[in-house]
Each structure stands twice: as structure tokens, then as C-alpha cells.
Amino acid sequence: MLKVLIVDDHEIVSTGISRMLQDVSNLQVVGCAASGEEAISLTKEQQPDIVLMDVHMPGIGGLGATKEIKRLVPKTKVIALSALDDNPYPTKLIEAGASGYITKGIALDEMIGAIEKVAKGGKYISSDVAQKMALSQMSKEEGETPLDILSDRELQIAQMIVDCRKVQDIAEKLNLSAKTVNTYSYRMFEKLSIGSDVELARLAMRHNLLGVGAVD
């Protein structure tokens, strides 16, 4: 029996996935977490075989949680779960220690297959994600994109700015102060040599790295 922990800050998503997986004979859902911090705590407590990790969440987010889980409970496998398939996160999550990356739109059979393959020590990346990762790697070999110089947190905030989120909304979503969000934005604009949210959006779209609606 494979123990699975579901991590998503949208209750309707985590509940839906949980109900679907509960009908699978060789899988046991041992809990649901709504943030990266809660995911780390529950992983240490429940010792799941697999963590289905939402990428975009409050606090440290899926990327930070994946790094911590692989550091604290290395035997637990992480499969990143996102509504997106064409941004920098697939590569970043794999580099952080995730064993798989799937999108929320995949069929249940494919999700089960991904869980089983990863549990056996394999890797699983949805075909559409794998193709775009390959194209992204080809582009990188020709020269890095400007957004590659951003830190994980800066990239997370950039994504939300492109999604037209207000500073206070970003602060609440990420459990930061508005002042801290503004500091990150200032550093990010400095690194990219831009002066406005509009310039950031244009830069993001030009390099096909961030998309509107990126943060679930």
C-alpha cells in the first residue's frame, strides 16, 4: 500500500484528488496540506511514500517545500502538481529533488501511473511538460533568458505581478509583509533593468516564461 500526501491550497482540488485516489486499491491518502510549511510537518509525521505537491501556494511554496522535504525525509518522493506546463517551474522542481511533474488536467489513470512509477524509483514527467522542458533547454543553450537571474522567491512574486495581483494580495498569499514584497520587487526590477510592472509583463511574455493566471 502506497501512502500519499496531497498538498494544495485549494480545498476543492485536494478534496477532489483525495476522493479519486481513495478508490484505488493500492493507494492510501494519509492527509492533505494547504501550504508548504504544513506539507513539511505532515511529511515528517506521516512518512508518506509520495507527496503530490502543488507548485503555487502561500509561504515557502511548493518549490521551497520540496527542497525541505527531500532534505528532512529523503525517502519520500515528490511529484509536482501544477495548472501550468510552460513556465520555469518544471525544471526548478526537478532540480529541487522532485521525481515527477504532472499537470492538474491529466487523466486519473495517468496520475496513478505516475505515482506508481515514481514509488518504484522512476521519474515521470507529463509528455506535454517534457516537450516544453526540452524546448526550454534548447533555448537556454542558445543563451540564458533574463528571468533566469531571479531567485525562486523573486520569480514567484514576478509571476503574481504579471497576474495583476496587488502588493497586499501578494503579501497575504505568501505570508509576507507588504514592505517585504516591495523590497523583492525593487531588487527584481533592478536585476532586470526595468521600471514598471508593464515592462515586466512584456519581458515575461517575450520569453514565454510566465503567463497570466500563473498562480493558482
Q: What is the helix fraction of residues, given as a range?
A: 40-55%
Q: Secondary-structure element order, as H and E?
A: EHEHEHEHEHEHHHHH
CATH architecture of the largest domain: 3-Layer(aba) Sandwich
The CATH class of the largest domain, by name, is Alpha Beta
Distance between the termini: 31 Å
Proportion of residues in extended strands? 5-15%
State the CATH topology of the largest domain.
Answer: Rossmann fold
The largest sheet has its strands arranged as 2-1-3-4-5-6
CATH superfamily of the largest domain: Response regulator
Largest sheet: 6 strands, parallel
The tally of structural domains comes to: 2
Protein structure class: alpha/beta
Number of discrete helical segments: 10
Q: What spatial form do the alpha-carbon principal axes imply? A: globular
| Low confidence ranges | 138-143, 211-216
Radius of gyration: 17 Å
